[in-house]
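Page 37, continued from 36.
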């Protein structure tokens, strides 16, 4: 069977980001594809050790195309940003954090915790099963668990901070102007993002719908307020006032 040269077009996804907030679980389901992963994109060579290849296939088998392509762009954008900033880092260690960073946005690994922690635990289990040193496991766990913790994660080592940086560029365009437009276009050509803005909001809205308590006081609250009917976020002022103390 011949393999397609590029990922499946996702243009069939709803143009309304969360018109199916209660019934959009399909955006989380795995839809692994067989197209070959490029060896190099925009001058960045993707790690190809046995561990890196297994991590890539593990993520692809668990993820929807929108999540998998985002994970791969996260690595490439993060690598390019790291070079732009003159950072020194281990490309494979960074790659593991990037490729695993949204495992918590899959049916297979979504639990009751914040999706970042679900994903970090899944990544750690994968590495522990393969006898990877605990120091490496801890770095990858931090990279996955902290990638949405803006104001904190950038103080961590580059292999952790760059996961957040790469994801932030891909999702919200943070750092877009730091990179050459030709490099950005090459990344998107290799791992396309048709309907990404709409479909990725569906992914996040499904998470909030299933476990709204994990959206409190983080960026998912914005998804809940806009796209999940009945979502209510507690106010820290109420918690302070209700504390069982006189003053």
């Amino acid at each position: 069977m011949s393999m397609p040269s590029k990922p499946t077009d996702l243009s069939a996804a709803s143009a309304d980001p969360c018109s199916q907030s209660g019934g959009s679980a399909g955006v989380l389901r795995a839809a692994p594809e067989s197209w070959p992963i490029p060896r190099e994109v925009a001058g960045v060579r993707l790690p190809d050790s046995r561990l890196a290849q297994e991590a890539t296939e593990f993520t692809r088998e668990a993820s929807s195309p929108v999540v998998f392509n985002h994970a791969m762009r996260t690595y490439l954008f993060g690598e390019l940003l790291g070079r732009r900033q003159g950072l020194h880092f281990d490309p494979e260690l960074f790659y593991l954090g990037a490729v695993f960073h949204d495992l918590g946005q899959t049916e297979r690994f979504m639990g009751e915790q914040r999706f970042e922690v679900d994903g970090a635990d899944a990544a750690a289990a994968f590495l522990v099963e393969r006898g990877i040193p605990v120091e490496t496991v801890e770095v990858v766990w931090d990279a996955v668990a902290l990638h949405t913790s803006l104001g904190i994660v950038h103080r961590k080592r580059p292999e952790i901070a760059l996961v957040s940086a790469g994801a932030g560029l891909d999702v919200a365009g943070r750092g877009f102007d730091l990179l050459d437009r030709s490099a950005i276009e090459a990344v998107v050509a290799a791992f396309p993002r048709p309907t990404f803005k709409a479909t990725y909001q569906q992914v996040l809205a499904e998470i909030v719908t299933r476990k709204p308590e994990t959206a409190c006081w983080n960026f998912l609250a914005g998804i809940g307020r806009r796209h999940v009917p009945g979502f209510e976020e507690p106010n820290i002022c109420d918690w302070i006032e209700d504390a069982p103390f006189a003053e």
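Strands lie at 40-41, 44-45. Flag for discussion at group meeting. Confidence is low (pLDDT under 50) at residues 1-23.
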